[in-house]
Amino acid sequence: MTPTDTEVSQRRDASQDQDRTPVVSVRGLWKVFGPKAEKVPDSEELRGLSRRELLDRAGCTAAVRDVSFDVSPGEVFVVMGLSGSGKSTLVRCLTRLIEPTAGQVVFEGEDIRDADPKRLRELRRRKFSMVFQHFGLLPHRRVVDNVSYGLEIRGMGKAERTKRALEVVELVGLSGYENSYPDQLSGGMQQRVGLARALAGDPDVLFFDEPFSALDPLIRRDMQNEVIRLHHEVGKTMVFITHDLSEALKLGDRILIMRDGKMVQCGTGDELVGAPADDYVRDFVSEVPRADVLTLKWIMRPAGPDDALDGPELGPDVVVREATRAVLAAEKPAKVVENGKLLGIVGDEEILSVIAGGA
Amino acid sequence: MATIAEAPAKLGPVRAVRRRVVIAGILVAWLVLFAVLRGHQTLALAAADLTDLHRWFNDVNDSIGANRNSNPLFLYFFNEIRLVIDNLVTFIQSLISQPSAGRPVPTIGWLGVVAIAGYVSWAFGNWRVAILAMAGFTFFGLQGLWQESMDTLALTVSAVFVALLIGIPLGVWAGLSDRVNRILTPFLDFMQTMPTFVYLAPLTLFFLIGPASATIATLIYAAPPAIRITAHAIRSVPETTVEAADSLGSTRRQTLTKVLLPMSKRTVVMGVNQTIMAALAMVTIAALIDAPGLGKTVVQALQSLDVGTAFNAGLAIVVMAIVLDRVTTAASVRAEAARRSGSRFAKWRKHLLVAGGVVAAVVVYLSHTYVWAAEFPGQGSTGSAIASAADSVTTWAQDNLSGFTNAIRNLITNGLLNPFQSLLTDSPWWLVGAVLVAVGAVLGGWRAGVTAGVCVGLLVGTGVWSDGMTTLASTVVATVLVMVFGVVVGVWMGRSPMADRLIRPTLDAAQVMPPFVYLVPFLALFGATRFTAIVAAVVYAAPVTMKIIADGIRAVPETTVEAATAAGSNTWQIITKVQLPMSRGALTLATNQGLIYVLSMVVVGGLVGAGALGYDVVAGFSQGELYGKGLAAGLAIVLLGVMFDRITQAAARRTTVPSRG
Questions:
Q1: Which of A134, A154, A181 faces B340 most closely, judged by CB atoms?
Q2: Residue A321: inside a domain, yes or no?
Q3: Residue B376 lies in a domain
Q4: Is residue A97 domain-shared with residue A17, that is, in the same domain?
Q5: Most buried one in A305, B35, B142, B556, CB count within 10 A?
Q6: Rounded Cα distance, B602 and B604, in Å
Q7: How far is A90 from chain B (nearest CA, A)?
Q8: Do residues B405 and B526 lie in contact, with contact meaning Cβ atoms separated by under 8 Å?
Q9: Which of B242, B245, B262 is opposite residue A140, by nearest beta carbon?
Q10: Nearest to A132 among B240, B263, B340 (CB)
Q11: Same structural domain, A265 and A298
């Protein structure tokens, strides 16, 4: 971790989430595959090695190395990285589908690494659920029975669980398909079933493991909107894994970028674009339409003595694209004001340099 | 050889060429030495001669026979198993095939059995297979083979029942546990390379001859597919699905009963199909150890060269194979399709099933009570008609086609088989052994060479070296022919989807036939010779090789073929320079399977004059003093099988490695 990204994430935490205890709190999480994997996180010497060196020296692969973050209630937290960056392993460690090697995963005050199998099952049945990239539906069950599976295994009666399943099926927009079998549905609809199954148990946290990567672009967009809609309606905390930056920016309140199992940067979308922690992130975000992500506070300049200060007033969190028309239409540069305090000004030049795609 | 083995891997093509040169060198050296040493140290053994090992086997057999009821191992283990199996078989036989409970007829008469067959086929499959099953069963009666068919069915059903009782739980266990899977797989591999035949001899040692040991042999032969396919089914449930079930908080038991088992159901039913087909094949061959039924009729007819009777009984076996295969296939389709057809039918179906059950029960009662429904009416005149028709076709063929068939037979026998056989049997044993080891090492690496060496050593030890070489000669000649046909038809099928669609169903049907029945038509055409066994072996092994080669050709990426076409290759060039080289792995696998299939058939050919190891085994069953020799011959077959399998498997691994790198 570089100092920058700690600073960025802390700033965000300090400004918005100070008063709320996190739902999920991850501290120093490691997942190492290989012989004597448990030695690696404790060894000063081994933990610093690169992937290649570690494989040569200890025969181990560290999929997740020393990752820490907090997820606040109601937040959509995105973990992003390319394939092999350890993001899918990370999300599985959070529910212990893969056993973490070291570190803490505190869920509502309880370290789930200490849970015995029974308690873990209980947590999985009631507290969190997961949506998978390849859906993982049961082909021999109808949609409604797939959705009610989680309720069935916790012993809920048939009438009750069917009623609940039908509600959720309706919530995800699958009414009319209750009695279909999964292979009669399109990919997007199958993932809606996956979503419904995850929602049926009314969990506190939803984990998404690249849920839309296997879908066509148009359907993917629909499903992303669906998730946004559901987030507004049910307000669940979500941890979302993706390799698609635009998906991350679209859905995520905050984004954690991983590379080779390590955290590279954690922050909001505009922080990543505006202040990339290193060249890797900079390269990553270079294709992003900056005007859609950056807010005025990232492009404003201090008001100089010869700047006219009678232009329009705008907030610092207004996205550049939305401010464009107002700034360009005004004769004078726009003032960026927060709580009556002048933070800086934005003129045609700043706007145009972003719109034109300059750095 | 050493330099070849040490050559760096990047010289792949060079190595392949040099390997060919080395093989040619070995063969030339063999021929030269053969010319010099011909007739020396051939280890020939006359048909009635025995070695010490054979006498020792005889003694073991005698002492087991003497102590069968006193030795605790037998008293409390083998005899108990035999008793249980025997009771099961006798029970089912008394239901459908043998007179029971003081009655002159079985508990359920023919009409009842037909009704049950139809009802069960309908309930698990569909009405079409139900009609097929009823027609097929009625046909057995018309053939005059009702009781024989029911004996075969009784043995098959008992063996399948026990095989599944053991196989499915084992399969589930192997599917869940990697360790169990690792332990079981080599055993299953080994058991599948064994020709059906060789299970029989050792089992008679422990379980005597008769229906019980036939059933035990059958269930041992039939259980591996059930185990393997069940394990495969459990393993091929997508990981995500299991993970999803875990993430929802399923217990292990819930995951098993609600996810893994239901999702494997269809594949497991396919495993049941394989088990049934394997059992039927084995039950017919188990006639050699006195299993009652159709197989016995065929064996007796084959031994007296009565083609008509053999054909009639063989036809019954074929019909039974078709009925069992179609019904179980329909059942596996139904496992999927039935609940799809919607709830409209479901309710109707339930009522109909109950009604059908009542009808079937009434018919069963009738068949229990009235003679006309108990004993199949008529004298089986259809059977006699079939037999005499087959006889007259045979006579006609022998009269009119003999010029043609004899020409083929003599061409292959004199041109290919005899020279090769004399090369193998008249060379000193150590020379042939050295050649086998060298070829094994060159083709399959030093490990395969060592295996070949061990097998050669043990073959010499069995005392039936010379017979083994005769069998080897027939096997190799048949395999060469199989590969020629396999490549021609396989390439055609692989290149033309139309040809594939037309040919594949025939191949599938041919594969469900018990090996045995292949002998009958060729016996008619070619008489009782080695050649008959070779032709039967070629026909028996052809479907599997053709399918593997066709799949291999089809697996060559379309873009590669397109690129070759774009470069201006003609069809012949595409086949020889692109498609065949790229499916080398499939070709080697096809050779492997071809060899295994051919070996098992060549051995069965011992029944119709192919002699050698197959004859030794058969003679061992019927003549007490040759028992030990038969056992040794069975062992020799196993050794040949293991040697072929190891060498070709190793060669297959080698040919696929360069294409990856």
A1: A181
A2: yes
A3: no
A4: yes
A5: B556
A6: 5
A7: 14
A8: yes
A9: B262
A10: B240
A11: no
User: What CA–CA distance (Å, rounded) separates B296 from B298?
Assistant: 5
The SS3 of residue B628 is: helix
Per-residue pLDDT averaged across B129-150, rounded? 87
| Domain co-membership, A252 together with A222 | yes
Sign of CA dihedral B471, B197, B278, B141: positive
How many domains does chain B divide into?
1
The answer to whether residue A33 is domain-embedded is yes
Domain final residue, candidates A266, A288, A310: A288
Final residue belonging to a domain, choices A288, A321, A343: A288
Q: Output the six-digit token pair for B302.
A: 């084959």
A280 and A319 in one domain? no
CB atoms near residue A32 (< 10 Å): 25
Nearest residue of A to residue B340, measured between CA atoms: A181
Q: Do B249 and A125 touch (CB under 8 A)?
A: yes
Instruction: Give A179 to chain B, closest Cα distance, Å.
Output: 9
Report if residue B320 sits inside a domain.
Answer: no
Does A226 share its domain with A344?
A: no
The chain B residue lying nearest A121, using CA atoms, is: B249
The Cα of B103 is separated from the nearest Cα of chain A by a number of Å equal to: 48
Task: Tell whether A187 is covered by a domain.
Answer: no
Q: For residues B126 and B307, what is the distance between their CA atoms, to the nearest angstrom?
A: 36
What tokens were used for B496? 């033309």
Interface of A with B (CB under 8 A): 92, 95, 97, 120-126, 129-130, 132-141, 149-150, 152-154, 181, 194, 197, 201, 207
Query: pLDDT (tens digit, 0 to 9) for every residue of chain A, 359 residues total?
Result: 343 343 333 333 433 444 568 889 999 999 998 888 888 888 878 887 888 888 888 888 889 999 999 999 989 999 998 888 889 999 999 989 899 999 999 998 889 899 898 999 889 888 889 998 888 888 888 899 999 998 998 888 999 999 999 999 998 888 899 888 888 898 889 999 999 999 898 898 999 999 888 888 888 888 899 889 888 888 889 999 999 888 888 888 999 999 888 899 998 888 888 888 888 888 888 888 887 888 888 888 888 777 777 778 888 888 888 888 888 888 788 888 888 888 888 888 888 888 776 54
Q: Other CB atoms closer than 10 Å to residue B352's CB: what's the count? A: 14
Neighbours of B304 (CB within 10 A): 10
Using the Cα atoms of residue B621, residue B622, residue B623 and residue B624 in order, give the sign of their dihedral.
Answer: positive
> What is the token pair recorded at A60?
């181990």
8 Å CB contact of A150 and B249: yes
Amino acid type, A197: R
Same-domain status, A207 and A104:
yes
CATH number, domain at B653? 1.10.3720.10
At A339, which CATH number?
Answer: 3.90.1280.20
Residue B425 within any structural domain of the chain: yes
Question: Is there a single domain that holds both residue A309 and residue A248?
Answer: no
Give the CB-side neighbour count of residue B13, counting CA atoms within 13 A: 2
Judge: A95–B248 Cβ closer than 8 Å, yes or no. Answer: no
Domain that holds residue B420: 8-67+404-429+464-661
Cα–Cα distance measured from residue A342 to residue B67, given in angstroms and rounded to the nearest whole number: 108
Residue B478 lies in a domain: yes
B248 contacts on A by Cβ (under 8 Å): 124-125, 129, 149-150, 153, 197, 201
Q: Is A116 found in the same domain as A7? A: yes
Give B246's contacts in chain A (Cβ within 8 Å): 97, 124
Asked if the Cβ–Cβ distance from B251 to A121 is below 8 Å, we say yes
Mean pLDDT throughout B267-285?
85
Q: Any idea what the CATH number is for the domain that residue A17 is in?
A: 3.40.50.300
Which of the residue ranges A98-102, B187-191, B606-610 has the most confident prediction, judged by mean pLDDT? A98-102
pLDDT band at B172 (very low <50, low <70, confident <90, very high): very high
Domain region containing A306: 292-355
Alpha-carbon span B628 to B634, nearest angstrom:
10
For chain A, the domain total comes to 2
Q: Is A110:A154 a contact under the CB 8 Å cutoff?
A: no
Residue of A nearest to B264 (CA): A140
